[in-house]
Amino acid sequence: MRKKDTDSTIQEKLDAELLAACSHGKYSEIKRLLNDGANPNAVADDNWDSALTELILSSEYAYGRVHKAFWKTLDLMLERGCDVNLVLETADGHVNTALFSAQYTIPEVTAYLLDHGADPNVVDMVANWTVLDEVEFRQISIDDDWEEFQEYWNSNIRIQQTLLDHGAHRESTLACMEKSKHWRKVKRNVYNACWNLDARMLDMTLTGKGIQLPQKSLPFLVCETMETAAEFTQRFFVDDAAGYEKRLIETLEILRKHGCDLDKGGALYYAVRGGYVETTRYLLDIGVDPDKCDCGGCSSDVHGKQEFHPYTLADRVLAWRGRWKKETARFFLKTFPMKTKKSG
């Protein structure tokens, strides 16, 4: 066997042993293997896990704690050249990074990676989501037995807030930002004002330029304001964002002033999803109809045919109440009660 082949075999063996050691969080073994020449950026055969993602997932202890040597091992890996932004791509196009893996453990791991330069805006082009998208998807996918997942909720919400505090965006926002580079200045200013909940700038732009917004654009502006602004203002939950709702309502009022129908664009849906009590009151007071609110739904097989069952706001409130403080949950449960069927 040629020396080159021998060296390659030794390296493969070291890397495989490092992946295994990282999956069990064995500090002494990891240090020995790195000293012997193992690659800190070693990747598993399926190209889905690296030494770093294996180490991160080894820290998962019921969302409550990590093993004692974890932080010391994480420091060691980065000191030895481990890349926090290594992007792993499988044969079917899905991607994984350390940050995608970190959402399955305690929030401090996400914060650590972000503080050490991890990019929160890597996009899985097959799933069409960033890590923020996935974190939020996991929130709304929990059914109404949320009490069993209260510890999970608390951790997940802190991870989401940490991502937002470090400039994370949803895939749809990144795509819109990319397209906005080619927009005319006025259109870009309108969207930027909505993203940043800058009611004054929005009104000045629309009034000063005498802009007549196309009707097809207005629902998208509402959507951008309600769904996306939180990413730019570093806030999401009204329970933790003093003054946020005031800016949100002011921005919606400017859009309404310029002809925007707030029954369209999902304003009420996003207000409820975000736990925005005052915004919900505002929308109901101006006549936004809860029965017109598109809340999504699910499909089921009925006698061999797929039937779509739309969700109501009451359905969504039951599923989401775990993300709010008790008084917030009580408000939404009272405002959007489940309708009981009349007995014959």
Protein model, in words:
- A two-stranded antiparallel sheet has the order 1-2. The protein has a two-stranded antiparallel sheet with strand order 3-4.
- Residues 235-240 have low confidence and may be disordered.
- It has two domains: 7-168, Serine Threonine Protein Phosphatase 5, Tetratricopeptide repeat, CATH 1.25.40; 172-335, Alpha Horseshoe (Serine Threonine Protein Phosphatase 5, Tetratricopeptide repeat).
- The chain is built from 17 helices and four strands.
- The protein is mainly alpha-helical.
- Helix 6 (107-115) packs parallel to helix 8 (150-165) and helix 12 (218-233) runs antiparallel to helix 13.
- The chain is elongated.
- It starts with a helix and ends in a 9-residue tail after the last helix.
Estimated structural class? mainly alpha
CA-based shape: elongated
The fraction of residues in strands falls at under 5%
Q: Which architecture name of the largest domain does CATH use?
A: Alpha Horseshoe
Characterize the biggest β-sheet.
Answer: 2 strands, antiparallel
The proportion of residues forming helix, as a percent range, comes to 40-55%
Main sheet: strand order = 1-2
Q: How far apart, in Å, are the first and last alpha carbons?
A: 85 Å
CATH topology of the largest domain: Serine Threonine Protein Phosphatase 5, Tetratricopeptide repeat
What ranges have pLDDT less than 50 throughout 5 or more consecutive residues? Answer: 235-240
